[in-house]
Design a protein that fits this description.
heterodimer; A: 288 residues; mainly alpha; 2 strands; 75% helix; globular; B: 334 residues; Rossmann fold; OB fold (Dihydrolipoamide Acetyltransferase, E2P); 6-stranded mixed sheet; 9 helices; 32% strand
């Protein structure tokens, strides 16, 4: 029962938070836009004046741009496929009644609590180290030559690390979705003559479609900006330079703030395109 | 086709035996109702027949063939669930067609059968809607449609009307009875509502704690309940039970007299008591009578026009020919 009066009071009360959030967003966005039109080299002369769209043209025409876009998409896509597929399987497994269910569920969620930097370092030093890593020992145990993961299979390694971090999130969301499935529906399908795989395809998967879109949406937003995992492992070498990482290099390693800002604007546009697509898909799915 | 025979079937969950050895034969084309209070094992029994639960020991024969280890889909039975269990992401047409698609029938045959079922159940206008857009009664009909198209040997209904409102329930009760007349297929129907059991059944199976208390036609159970439990469960309002001297006069531990078999009078009668509550239904009036010296409350049915009020002293006379007598073990004395 919101009267005119209480609504205006509500707006007044919300105003400080809205203004703060807006400022928080607008100030960096305006600064990025401002710098993107300037030639600004902090260690090589500072502000060297306006250059128009020069930075935008240079950023796109650089030989690193398209490989960076490709690397970004491969990592996002790879992680999404792995987390969704394994997430569904794990969720179904965890939905089965078993001994110590509560503990197992907490353990499965655990990787999500580990900071990205830490988990990347753990993977790099404990698993993927070509001399002392667990995987190297495993390979040697079977008489194979250890793989130097981060240089020979850099992309795979990073996808593995990031997937490991995000799998718990996907599993958790999908598990709650599976638990909400009416068991009578599965029994009805069983009586209707649907074997296990068809029950999965015709009943469980459609039931999960909403949860899957939500997982994809949220993960894409976060995966487009992964940085720590690359920074502490390959440092952007061996074809793992994503758009985010390229921008970082332009600003901090090349000390070219203008060029980096232009890249940032491209990243904003890319993220928005993805967001619009996902919003439409999710919107459609949430309506049904 | 659809004769189902249970031979010393038992079911245990862990250490708890919910169904002690049980024998039951359901004849082809019969409308059998399993009735009992909640937790009596009637749904479990239905799920055992469906194959959704494995029996612990014993065997189930369907049409003379052992079906104990046959998976549910191969038993040729169709089930209508309490929650209807429709597939929410499929249209009504796809829901009804689902068992046929799973059986890999060709599309023309599927369409023919779906259209047929839809016209029988008045669903033709709703075929392209989703279950979420239907009312409770329509969903119920879709669930029945999904069962019909398979042309099963028997239908299993698990409390299918308990989610409907009272008016719709009466309507669907009729529809299911008519469907049974038309298809003449074996139907097994689980309910806790003895009115549903009485009105629909050819044969009622009264269950308590997994044990069959009595099997018989509705009127058999009404006229000659085998024990106190059946006597109290069948009939509405409940039969009055009287113990003590009054029962001893009839040579029994307990006597039972149905509310509709007691006549009410203002002036004279065998028993007397004070009206505590009178329920006027229009067609009938039910009096709850206290201070009779026989039992806490005696319920009496009278004509709708009889107008005693709270606090009135009235006189009751049981019809001597329909007094049920039970011994110390609660069994009927003939």
């Amino acid at each position: 029962m919101a009267t005119q009066h209480s609504r205006s009071v509500a707006r007044l009360m919300m105003a400080p938070a809205v203004v703060l959030l807006l400022g928080w967003m607008l100030v960096p966005l305006t600064m990025t836009l401002y710098f993107s039109f300037k030639k600004y080299l902090p260690l090589r002369g500072g502000d060297l004046g306006w250059v128009g769209l020069d930075n935008y043209v240079r950023f796109v025409s650089s030989s690193s741009f398209w490989p960076a876009v490709q690397a970004t998409l491969v990592i996002v896509g790879g992680v999404l496929v792995i987390t969704v597929v394994l997430g569904i399987l794990l969720a179904m497994l965890l939905d089965q009644p078993m001994w110590g269910q509560g503990v197992v569920r907490i353990l499965v969620i655990a990787p999500f609590f580990v900071m990205p930097t830490v988990s990347a370092l753990v993977w790099k030093n404990m698993f993927m180290d070509p001399v002392n890593g667990l995987l190297a020992h495993l390979w040697r145990f079977f008489g194979a030559e250890p793989v130097s993961w981060l240089s020979e299979a850099s992309m795979t390694s990073i996808i593995m690390i990031v997937s490991w971090q995000w799998l718990p999130f996907a599993t958790l969301i999908l598990l709650t979705a599976i638990q909400s499935l009416d068991s009578e529906q599965l029994e009805a399908a069983e009586m209707d003559g649907a074997p296990v795989l068809k029950r999965f395809y015709h009943i469980i998967l459609p039931h999960l479609s909403r949860a899957i879109t939500i997982v994809i949406l949220i993960q894409t937003i976060f995966l487009l900006s992964i940085f720590a995992e690359i920074f502490v492992t390959t440092g952007g070498a061996f074809g793992t330079r994503t758009l985010t990482y390229l921008i970082f290099q332009r600003v901090l390693e090349s000390q070219n703030v203008g060029l980096g800002s232009a890249g940032g604007v491209y990243a904003i546009i890319l993220a928005n395109i993805v967001a619009i697509f996902l919003m439409r898909i999710v919107g459609k799915n949430l309506d049904a | 086709m659809g004769r189902i025979q249970l031979k010393s079937v038992t079911k245990s969950f862990g250490d708890v035996q919910v169904i002690p050895p049980l024998d039951l034969t359901i004849e082809d084309g019969e409308f059998t109702v399993f009735v009992g209070p909640s937790g009596c094992g009637k749904s479990t029994l239905l799920r055992l027949i469906a194959g959704l639960e494995d029996i612990t020991s014993g065997s189930i024969d369907i049409d003379g063939a052992d079906a104990t280890d046959v998976p549910p889909a191969k038993r040729g039975l169709a089930m209508v669930f309490q929650s209807y269990a429709l597939y929410p992401h499929m249209t009504v047409r796809k829901n009804i067609a689902f068992p046929l698609r799973m059986a890999k029938l060709d599309q023309a045959e599927i369409d023919k059968r779906v259209e047929g079922a839809a016209s029988v159940l008045n669903l033709t206008d709703y075929l392209d809607r989703r279950p979420g857009q239907l009312s409770g009664g329509q969903r119920q009909r879709v669930a029945i449609g999904r069962a019909i198209v398979r042309e099963p040997a028997a239908f299993l209904f698990d409390e299918p009307l308990s989610n409907l409102d009272a008016a719709l329930r009466v309507g669907m009760r009729l529809e299911i009875s008519e469907l049974h007349e038309r298809l003449a297929t074996t139907m097994i129907y689980v309910t806790h509502d003895q009115v549903e059991a009485m009105t629909m059944a050819d044969k009622i199976v009264v269950l308590q704690a997994g044990v069959i208390e009595q099997v018989g036609s509705p009127l058999e159970l009404y006229r000659t309940p085998r024990n106190l439990f059946v006597a109290g469960f069948i009939g509405s309002p409940k039969m009055n039970f009287i113990e003590g001297d009054e029962a001893a006069k009839h040579g029994a531990q307990t006597i039972g007299i149905r509310p509709e078999h007691i006549t009410v009078s203002e002036t004279e009668g065998d028993w007397s008591g004070v009206v505590s509550v009178s329920e006027h239904l229009g067609s009938d009036t039910f009096f709850h009578v206290h201070e009779t010296g026989l039992a806490d409350t005696i319920t009496v049915r009278a004509d709708g026009e009889v107008g005693f009020r709270h606090g009135d002293r009235i006189h009751l006379t049981p019809r001597a020919d329909v007094i049920h007598r039970f011994d110390a073990k609660g069994l009927r004395i003939e």
